[in-house]
Write a sequence for this structure.
C-alpha cells in the first residue's frame, strides 16, 4: 500500500510518499519540497530523462505510434436521454520522459458556443498489472483514472474505468480504433450510470494532420 501526504504552508509545499510492504515499518520513497517562484519554470513535459534509467518497453513503443496531431470531430452524451453535444478541435500525442510516458493534449470547442474543453492525459505502463494506466484531468475539475490494453488484433486500444460522480456510481469503456501504422482513426465510449442501461456516451473521428 502507498500513502501520499501533501502539506501547503504559505508559498511552499512538501510532499512525501510512503510504501508499506507485507511486514515491517513503512519506507519513505519520495520526499520533496516545492516553493513558489516569480519566474516561469521550464515545462516538466520537456524533460526527457527517466527515473533510474527506465526505458520504454515494447508496449509503450507500440503506443508511441499514436504520436502526432489529429483534427477531431466528436459527439458527447452526458447522461441517458440528453441530446448529444458536438465538439471539434485537436488532439495531440507526444512521448515524454524518454518515451516511458505518452502525453495527450486535447483542445476542443463546443459547436455554436464559446465553451472550450481542455484536457491533459498521461499514459504509462504498469508492469505489475501488465496494462497501461491512463490519467486524465480537464478544465472542469474532473480527474479520471483508467486501465487500458491493446485489443487481441492490435488494431485498437481498449480502456475501462469506474468512479462515482454526482452521487451515482459510473463505469465505462472506450475503444480507440487504430490504422495499420498505429495512428488513431476513431473512438467510441459506452457508459453506465446508476441504474441506467449502457449507452453510447462519446464517439469521434480523427484525421492525422
Amino acid at each position: 500500500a502507498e500513502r501520499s501526504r501533501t502539506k501547503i504552508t504559505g508559498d511552499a509545499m512538501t510532499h512525501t510518499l510512503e510504501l508499506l510492504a507485507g511486514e515491517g515499518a513503512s519506507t519513505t520513497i519520495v520526499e520533496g519540497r516545492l516553493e513558489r517562484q516569480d519566474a516561469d519554470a521550464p515545462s516538466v513535459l520537456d524533460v526527457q530523462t527517466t527515473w533510474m534509467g527506465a526505458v520504454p518497453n515494447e508496449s509503450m513503443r507500440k503506443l508511441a505510434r499514436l504520436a502526432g496531431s489529429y483534427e477531431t470531430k466528436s459527439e458527447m452524451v452526458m447522461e441517458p436521454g440528453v441530446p448529444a453535444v458536438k465538439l471539434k478541435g485537436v488532439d495531440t500525442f507526444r512521448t515524454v520522459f524518454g518515451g516511458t510516458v505518452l502525453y495527450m493534449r486535447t483542445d476542443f470547442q463546443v459547436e455554436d458556443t464559446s465553451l472550450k474543453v481542455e484536457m491533459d492525459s498521461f499514459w504509462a505502463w504498469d508492469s505489475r498489472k501488465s496494462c497501461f494506466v491512463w490519467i486524465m484531468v480537464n478544465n472542469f475539475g474532473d480527474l479520471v483514472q483508467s486501465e487500458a490494453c491493446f485489443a487481441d488484433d492490435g488494431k485498437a486500444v481498449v480502456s475501462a474505468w469506474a468512479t462515482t460522480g454526482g452521487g451515482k456510481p459510473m463505469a465505462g469503456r472506450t475503444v480507440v480504433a487504430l490504422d495499420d501504422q498505429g495512428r488513431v482513426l476513431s473512438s467510441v465510449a459506452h457508459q453506465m450510470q446508476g441504474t441506467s442501461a449502457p449507452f453510447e456516451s462519446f464517439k469521434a473521428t480523427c484525421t492525422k494532420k
User: Anything to note?
Assistant: The helical segments are 58-63. The chain has one helix and 13 strands. The CA atoms of residues 1 and 21 lie 7 Å apart. The radius of gyration is 19 Å.
